[in-house]
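Students often ask why we bother encoding 3D structure as a string. The short answer is that it lets us treat folding as translation between two languages. Here is a chain of 732 residues written in the first language.
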Amino acid sequence: MAGAVLQVIIAVGLVAQPTRPQPPVPADTVRRPQQPGDTLRRPARPDTVRTKRDSVTVAAPAAVDTTRRAGIDSVRGVPDTLKTRVRRDSIQAPIARAEVPNDIGVGPLYRWTRDSVLTTGAINLSDLLERVPGVTMFRSGWIASAQTAAYLGDATRVRVFRDGVELDALDPRAGGVRDVGDIQLANIDEVTIERAAGELRVHLRTWTVRNTTPYTRVDAFTGDEDTNLYRFFYGRRFGSGFDAQVGVQQFGTGSRNRRVGGGGTVLDALARVGWARGLWSVDATLNRLDRSRDPTLRFEDQQEVLPNFESRRNDTQLRIAYGDPDGRGPWLQAIANAASQRLATTALLSLDTTFAPTPPVNVVVSVDTLRADSTFSRRQYVLTGGYRLGGVRLSATDRLRTVAGEMLNSPAVRASYDSRLFSVSVFGEKGAVGGLVVDSALVPRVHRRIQQRRVEGGTVDSVITKTTDVPGGVALPPWRASRVDVSARLSPLPWFSLLGSASRESRTLPGLAPHDTGTAVDTVASSKGATTLRLEAALRLGRMWLSGGVVRRGADTVPPLRTYGCLTLPAGGCERAIAAADSTAATGVTFGARGPVWKDVYVDLGGLAWSQAGGAYRPQLQLRSEVGVLTNWLGRFPSGNFGFKFAAIDEYRSRVRFPITPAPNTEGALLCDLEVCAPAANVLTLQLEIRIQSGVLSYQLRNALNRPYEVVPGLRMPGPINYYGVRWTFWN
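And here it is in the second language, the structure alphabet:
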């Protein structure tokens, strides 16, 4: 049949006559065959010969349609390789991003993108925050331990936002302070730290993709203390604008040595779907965090300080957006978020009246246990929008929360102008809502008093003398705050800048009952107002910036770090709860040096020294210095397929005071009001990274000098930890 068709076509071509003299065939009549590279990037047209005005008109029999029945090859049935549609990579409209404010500063800003976050060696958000002057990290052990960040000695002054939603603290034992160890970096696309004078705001953007070619990332790490970490990410955009991505991170550490923090596991999972076309986008995100932590023992006497912990947190978010906060023109976003955290049965406290390795006769121990599956939840609705034109940014946000059946509103406005000569930023917020504040007496629990006595052979016999079922009460209202922040930078010369920042805020803190009261308490609110000032001058030498200045913090009430429960007084032999502190006004000196020193050698140094010693939850002197080499060695590898980093990081902090509640004597009077301090600590970390194309070999040695140290009194940090692995990305 194919041969007959071919003969008919040849015969018709020989007999048919043109209607007018046949001109030469123009050069554009027959399309040039596509180059091999083009065939992979764009689909070939069905026919390479098109009839145009100057084309030769050929009469064909009605039964033979050469344009429909014959392909580029005249013999039908032979596959047409040029006609096959080859999928090509394309970039789709971006899924909406949350607003990231201008950070008024000089030199390298505290902002990291997807790859640079992990290049720093950070495992979670805690490791990044340690780089910021004024931030003090508290840990009970290695990466699975409880981790709290305090800014200028106050943990409530560190707030974290992810995709425009504030990540509130829901753990009732934390006293309204978020455990930053919960916030993993595996699924984060960008981290920006906004340093106001009186508050530190961390803005996170969830990882998203724009290419239709699938993107895959796989990381695997292992190390000492039975540490294993795995990450996986997959994302892809489709030609219709649809977005689908999933990311999982799982790590765990062993529990064989509970004297240096114990073990635990963390599972962080992300699922995200969305659609974007032009300036419009819709996306839904689910973040799930499963976290468990073994009991933590005091190093000296092996007594349990932090009980076991097991929780599951779900954050579900839906967003509808128009425009891009990073682009020009108007933008608008509406966000609905639901957060819930479920706590499994776990001990709250273990109050011992003695800490001898072998308890004497008739030792009374009080143990509180949470009821199974205590769940705490909160909803958050955000409406935000703004306009950007050149260096001018304007935005407004209305944040509505449901807390214990009550609606709390927190409006905020922001305006900024940025140029080389002058930059200014103004932020105002009314009624900001803190984390969940629930006293231990208000959590549904079972209270037991156990009498331990020593019997023959040195064993211990325990007898429950009293069991009390304490019902759960209504959670205390969260702390509220209203503030105004103003920051400005003046750069009269390209190598000299002056910076100034001021914050004025007023806070309402709920009253906190003692840990061992066993009864619910009413809120005893106290209003405090404080003004914080920061002035700095910066000088550029080559590519490096040198800075120095002063920080003035007003008197304020500092909420307790209740994450760490109770501490031991070595002198008194008694255990008492960590307490709030009324701090007096304090003045500190800041200093820093950041940037390249010579070729690819860089330095990152920052510190803060207070003129007054003994401030609650803050060291008098804190210094972090990093010296390293970061290069792509383009002279030897001009393709950019090689990268190298080696860094030595030294961190020093003087002793830190933890205030505690007074202990009454047998007559009811106050017996003592001593303090507990974490001694001075100095830790050296070494980091090495080698990148070959899209694979990175990474190695860290933490506490390289094996120095014993504590950052929370009585909780010894681990010795040297080797942590190494590979990060690998694929475009497939």
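Translate back mentally: Residues 248 and 495 are 44 Å apart (CA to CA). Keep this in mind for the problem set.
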